[in-house]
Amino acid sequence: MIELASVIRDLRDELEQAIGVAEGAALRFELGTIELEVSVALERSGNAGAKVRFWVVESGTEATMARTGTQRITLALKPTLAGSVDPPYVSGFSEADER
Fold first, then answer.
1. 0.85 cut: is pTM over it?
2. Would you say 60 and 2 are in contact if contact means Cβ atoms under 8 Å apart?
3. Residue 54 falls within a domain, yes or no?
4. In what order do the strands lie in the sheet with 70-77?
5. pLDDT tens readout for residues 56-90
Protein backbone atom coordinates (compact mmCIF):
# COMPACT_ATOMS: atom_id res chain seq x y z
CA MET A 1 0.00 0.00 0.00
CA ILE A 2 1.08 3.57 -0.63
CA GLU A 3 0.13 6.63 1.43
CA LEU A 4 -2.34 8.90 -0.36
CA ALA A 5 -0.01 11.86 0.24
CA SER A 6 2.74 10.02 -1.67
CA VAL A 7 0.43 9.40 -4.63
CA ILE A 8 -0.48 13.09 -4.80
CA ARG A 9 3.18 14.12 -4.39
CA ASP A 10 4.22 11.82 -7.26
CA LEU A 11 1.41 13.21 -9.43
CA ARG A 12 2.59 16.75 -8.65
CA ASP A 13 6.17 15.82 -9.61
CA GLU A 14 5.00 14.34 -12.93
CA LEU A 15 2.91 17.42 -13.71
CA GLU A 16 5.79 19.77 -12.87
CA GLN A 17 7.99 17.80 -15.27
CA ALA A 18 5.33 18.04 -18.00
CA ILE A 19 4.97 21.80 -17.41
CA GLY A 20 8.75 22.25 -17.70
CA VAL A 21 8.77 20.37 -20.99
CA ALA A 22 5.97 22.63 -22.29
CA GLU A 23 8.16 25.74 -22.17
CA GLY A 24 8.76 26.80 -25.76
CA ALA A 25 6.76 23.90 -27.25
CA ALA A 26 4.58 24.74 -30.24
CA LEU A 27 1.80 22.41 -29.11
CA ARG A 28 0.66 22.72 -25.50
CA PHE A 29 -2.38 21.62 -23.54
CA GLU A 30 -4.10 23.68 -20.87
CA LEU A 31 -4.08 21.67 -17.69
CA GLY A 32 -7.64 21.44 -16.38
CA THR A 33 -9.22 19.60 -13.49
CA ILE A 34 -7.62 16.23 -12.79
CA GLU A 35 -9.83 13.44 -11.51
CA LEU A 36 -7.97 10.78 -9.59
CA GLU A 37 -9.88 7.65 -8.57
CA VAL A 38 -8.21 5.36 -6.04
CA SER A 39 -9.12 2.54 -3.70
CA VAL A 40 -8.09 3.40 -0.16
CA ALA A 41 -7.83 1.56 3.14
CA LEU A 42 -8.23 3.52 6.36
CA GLU A 43 -5.92 3.11 9.32
CA ARG A 44 -6.72 4.68 12.67
CA SER A 45 -4.13 4.56 15.42
CA GLY A 46 -5.47 4.12 18.95
CA ASN A 47 -3.02 6.25 20.94
CA ALA A 48 -3.61 9.69 22.46
CA GLY A 49 -2.63 11.56 19.29
CA ALA A 50 -4.83 9.35 17.12
CA LYS A 51 -5.20 10.25 13.48
CA VAL A 52 -6.62 8.59 10.41
CA ARG A 53 -4.30 7.71 7.54
CA PHE A 54 -5.38 6.89 4.00
CA TRP A 55 -3.48 4.19 2.16
CA VAL A 56 -3.90 3.72 -1.60
CA VAL A 57 -4.38 0.06 -2.44
CA GLU A 58 -2.02 -1.04 -5.19
CA SER A 59 -3.26 -3.03 -8.14
CA GLY A 60 -3.59 -6.71 -7.35
CA THR A 61 -3.91 -6.28 -3.57
CA GLU A 62 -7.51 -5.07 -3.50
CA ALA A 63 -8.96 -8.57 -2.93
CA THR A 64 -6.70 -9.06 0.09
CA MET A 65 -7.54 -5.62 1.48
CA ALA A 66 -11.30 -6.09 1.08
CA ARG A 67 -11.39 -7.70 4.51
CA THR A 68 -9.89 -4.59 6.12
CA GLY A 69 -12.39 -2.25 4.50
CA THR A 70 -11.45 -0.47 1.32
CA GLN A 71 -13.32 2.48 -0.13
CA ARG A 72 -13.17 3.90 -3.62
CA ILE A 73 -12.75 7.68 -3.64
CA THR A 74 -12.46 10.23 -6.42
CA LEU A 75 -10.42 13.37 -5.93
CA ALA A 76 -10.93 16.38 -8.21
CA LEU A 77 -7.69 18.35 -8.21
CA LYS A 78 -7.42 21.74 -9.92
CA PRO A 79 -3.74 22.48 -10.58
CA THR A 80 -2.42 26.03 -10.26
CA LEU A 81 1.04 27.53 -10.46
CA ALA A 82 2.27 29.41 -7.40
CA GLY A 83 2.33 33.14 -8.07
CA SER A 84 0.41 32.91 -11.37
CA VAL A 85 -3.19 33.62 -12.34
CA ASP A 86 -2.78 31.83 -15.68
CA PRO A 87 -3.58 28.12 -15.98
CA PRO A 88 -0.60 25.78 -16.28
CA TYR A 89 0.18 24.20 -19.63
CA VAL A 90 1.78 20.88 -20.47
CA SER A 91 3.30 19.76 -23.77
CA GLY A 92 2.50 16.69 -25.76
CA PHE A 93 5.99 15.25 -25.27
CA SER A 94 7.89 13.72 -22.38
CA GLU A 95 11.63 14.10 -21.92
CA ALA A 96 12.10 10.57 -23.27
CA ASP A 97 10.23 11.54 -26.48
CA GLU A 98 12.55 14.49 -27.11
CA ARG A 99 15.70 12.37 -27.27
1. no
2. no
3. yes
4. 2-3, 52-56, 34-44, 70-77
5. 887 665 555 545 667 888 999 999 988 888 888 88
